[in-house]
Amino acid sequence: PVPMELIRVDQQKAAAETEILRKIAYQVGVDAESVTAQQAYQGVAWTVRERLIDAFNKTQAYWREKDPKFIYYLSAEFLMGRTLTNAVNNLGLEGEFGEAIRKLGYSLEELQSQEQNASLGNGGLGRLAACFLDSIATLSLPGWGYGIRYRYGMFRQGLENGYQSESPDYWLTNGNPWEIPRRELAYKIGFYGSVQQGKWVPDEQVYAVAYDNPIPGYGTKTVGNLRLFDCQPMSEFKLASFNEGKYSEATDAKRKAEDISAVLYPNDATEYGRELRLKQQIFFVSAAIQDTLARFKKTHKDMKELPSKACFQMNDTHPTIAVAELMRLLIDQEGLKWDAAWDITTKSLAFTNHTVMPEALEKWPVKVMAKLLPRHMEIIEKIDSIWKDSLRAKVTSEVGSQPKQAAPEKAAEATKEAAAEPPVDPVEAALAKYSIITENPWEKGVKLVNMAFMATIGSKSTNGVAAIHSEIIKETIFKDFYELSPEKFQNKTNGVTPRRWLAYCNPGLSKLITKTLGSDEWISKTDQLTGLKQHADDKAFQKQWRSIKLENKQRLADLIKSKTGISVPTNALYDVQIKRIHEYKRQHLNMFSVVNRYLEIKAASPEERKKFVPRVVIIGGKAASAYVMAKKMIKLVTSLGDVINNDPEVSDLLKVVFIPDYNVSLAETIIPGAEVSQHISTAGTEASGTSNMKFQMNGCLIIGTMDGANIEIAQESGKENMFVFGVDAKDIGRLREERKNFKVNDPRWEKVMSFLTGNTFEQGLFQDLVDNVNDMSKANDWFLLGNDFTDYLRAQDEIDVLYKDQDAWTKRSILYTASSGFFSSDRCIDQYAKEIWDVKPCPVPSS
Ligand code: 26V
Fold first, then answer.
1. Which family does it belong to (predicted)?
2. CB distance 465 to ligand 1 below 6 Å
3. Which of 648, 682, 734, 763, CA to CA, is 20 to 30 A from 78?
4. Per-residue pLDDT, 417
5. Which of 206, 203, 150 lies closest to 179, judged by CA?
6. Cα dihedral sign for 160, 161, 162, 163?
7. How far is residue 525 from each of residues 87, 138, 504, measured CA to CA in Å?
8. 0.80 exceeded by the pTM?
9. ipTM score here?
């Protein structure tokens, strides 16, 4: 007799096939005999959606019944990428669906490529949020993400004459099977107006309409949620205006409301753009908090219980208006007294800082805040004043213990200044460094709201995203706050999901790992990857490892060919730098080394040329649309590619490729095919980095500075196994000071600079870029390329030397994967849950 198990599997497969065919017939509306890949994708996706919703409904009902404490992850960005493969695999549907898909004449991979990326984010911060959702669900932690359903995600990047071009990302054109519109769930969000009798009377209002995006966990029945809000007008059409022939006026309100959820980070060069950003922030934060309070109130009477049922994690400064909004809702709508509301707020919120770049630490002009959100501004002022009152005694005694008399020569100046300005109370002056409301140092008299300060004061915990970064913020931006309450400051080193970033994107390696370790448990228990260490020296194992890398390189070469037309040899070393383009990430330093290599190849005799290790240098990333230097850096890459790739003398020894429109799904092909990857930010500037972790997991060696999570990766994989170079973070301040008088003592530097400003390129094309790092009368090489250049080339040489010994190289590659377990987002989320959120797993019982 045929075992029951097999019969069930057969029945399931048949059921999946029937469902897909029904979807193709009645949802897509075509004949299954002749489906295009897009139609087949739609049929399969809408079928998988139903499985997802079944498990989603069960999870949410179970959580409603159990009423556990929830984590709410507030983020302006969620870089989800594609969903189909992830959903099929996390739900364990490959067996059931694989055959049905093949019968349609496609593979899962082909159908997946039909899906648009959900690019609702810029880079690391947004992708981190996406990895976190995966881990929250996988660990069965009750938790939801909250954000904005941008109609257009991150712009599409093209190349025009080697420069970045930007076009809108129409990601919703074919519909979105992965969301559930909740049109009945709409919250009112107010703007402008005034405060009357202590309450806000806005004079503009819109609706935040919820869309749920189920998030399947791996190896569990738990399906979490990402709730995104779309902005809609209170009334969408003015019939009277239309009838009067004022057609555009009739739809004005709709257009204006829809602006709010239209694009990610509208350009803030204009006043309107800046206001729109703040509108987006209050829009999703208010909707999220109203939504959670409404659910909380269904089962709880006393608001004081909120901190035991909800924790809101604020992902960088974008959602930090939550401090004022939660206060407002508790006081103005729930009728609580100030102190009670403050107690609840500071126990329910937590804050993560993701950068020390001053331009990214948001400070809103008081004028803009007061106009758009008058009641919030009032609350912020009161928070600030109570906060400073609480510090006044301490500060007074500190000021009192300092010498009162200024030095005689300064005293004369002080008297002159005093004549011009009202006298400054020394205590008030000393309190200024703690203040949420600060004076704009660049514009006298203009007051700003420091959002990071408000977040730290108004929440229970502030954390950085890698060990070094968490130390740096305690010494710099939050120094004074750290000294007041050191217990509030924590580190949570980032992580990435091993599902998307190893198991699914690298099926070849994943199979080998499972075979070698004897089970696939490593996919959720990444510590088990250490079991690979004992095979690192095994020649037969190394050979298998290498042949998988070669297959992945072939896939990457095919991708490069299709995206750029450039053919790259698979026997070359694949060297990758993919991330946002930024001066601090130093893609131009990478290019300086490319120029140096090019010049060395050119100078070598045909005999000497045989000694070079062939390299393909691959760059991908977007530049912010207003960031002129970053755009020039892209032009540098493409221009070098044009020269080098077409130089017959160089032939296959060196290729330079810029892959346009870098996004999540491209990363899933690029990372498995990379052999060395570059994480070369100036020490102290990259908070963590997360692609470094993805490369490490996939056995790709790293050349990097002692910055961000590179430091911890080096600890785990062995510093001697990483190509480390560059100055130390603790010396950066001094070196920046000294850079004015510093000369790069390396003839290769001058050669590179002359090449870039010489007649190979259009006159003056790279003059500004070169001046920025080389002409100390114009700039100061703020990111210290000159200081790191020589050591960087030394590390590059080490790469070539090791690559010639393929066994040694492969051994290192295996050790990288084997020691990547720590960088799973499951580990990171477990730490957040225990050390900040106090949220416990609440798994849906199986059956
Ligand atoms: C801030 C702003 C401010 C206004 C203009 C637009 C804009 C866009 C993004 C941001 C946030 C920047 C912070 C950020 O993305 N940090 C990255 O976070 C990653 C996850 O923690 C981390 O791995 C990266 O090192 C860090 O740069």
1. Belongs to the glycogen phosphorylase family.
2. yes
3. 682
4. 53
5. 150
6. negative
7. 19, 11, 16
8. yes
9. 0.96
